[in-house]
Amino acid sequence: MLPMSNVDPQELAKFSELAHRWWDPESEFRPLHQINPLRLEWIDARVGGVAGKRTVDVGCGGGILAESMARRGAQVLGIDLAGKPLKVAQLHAMEAGVQGLAYREVAAEALAAEQPGSFDLVTCMEMLEHVPDPASTVRACAQLVKPGGWVIASTINRNAKAFLFAIVGAEYVLRMLPRGTHEYAKFIRPSELARHAREAGLDAVAGCGLEYNPLTRRYWLSEDQSVNYMLAFRRP
């Protein structure tokens, strides 16, 4: 959490409306709020508990995952290159009084050069499909983590089913996300993500899929990685 002396009250006021939109579980960010507990439990189980772990959340956005990990006792740095969501995240953390949480507007590659091998856990959720060079981000994550530490990433598979579910269904039919949120060509197959990680010196440890029922509006984790999925890697 940033010290109160380092906060401009006018900035707090400016981003208050944005903050409540990002953290409104019924807004366009509803899917992130719904899947966050599932992701958090899976991450927690993989790494033997996030409590006490020095963690960096790459592409943290408004801080939904970063804040939930901090609430569990992790020492979290959330990083992003989008300034407005970071301010939203900072404001929400201050309003909630969350400890052990900080945010920076910095690229993963720049932080990796600055603090190599400094983190027990690196998370990168729903970010790799939004960058021009996902392999570069994976390399940065591998550089950031300590030997024996964990890198956990989530993204979207690239196939016909993923196109139907993640773009046609989510953006056009169900309107769960704004149109244009995703670009099919940037989706990443699990084998491609695993290759990027292997080339960066990481070992694949575990994976899972994330499924959704539009009738019950319920998400759950499964073995099916055909659309949304998470992979866990470890640095030897």
SS content category: alpha/beta
- pLDDT < 50 runs, ≥5 residues: 1-18
Kindly estimate the percentage of residues that lie in beta strands according to DSSP.
15-25%
Helix amount, in percent?
Answer: 40-55%
Query: CATH H-level name... which superfamily?
Result: Vaccinia Virus protein VP39
Average of per-residue pLDDT values: 88
Strand order of the largest sheet: 3-2-1-4-5-8-6-7
Reported by name, the CATH topology is: Rossmann fold
Distance between the termini: 31 Å
Oligomer: single chain
Task: Based on the coordinates given, report the CATH architecture.
Answer: 3-Layer(aba) Sandwich
Spell out the helices and strands N to C.
Answer: HHEHEHEHEHEHHEEE
The largest β sheet comes out as: 8 strands, mixed
Rg for CA atoms? 17 Å
Write down the overall geometry.
globular
CATH structural class: Alpha Beta
Question: Could you please describe the fold and organization of this structure?
Answer:
With 236 residues, the chain is of the alpha/beta class. The chain has one domain: 3-Layer(aba) Sandwich (Rossmann fold), CATH 3.40.50.150. It is built from eight helices and eight strands; from the N terminus they run ααβαβαβαβαβααβββ. The protein has helices at residues 9-22, 30-47, 64-71, 83-96, 108-114, 134-144, 160-173, 190-199; strands spanning 54-58, 75-80, 101-105, 119-125, 145-156, 203-213, 218-222, 228-234. An eight-stranded mixed beta sheet has the order 3-2-1-4-5-8-6-7. Helix 1 (9-22) packs across helix 4 and helix 5 (108-114) packs parallel to helix 6 (134-144). The chain is globular, with a radius of gyration of 17 Å. It starts with 8 loop residues before the first helix and ends with a strand. The model is unreliable at 1-18 (pLDDT under 50).
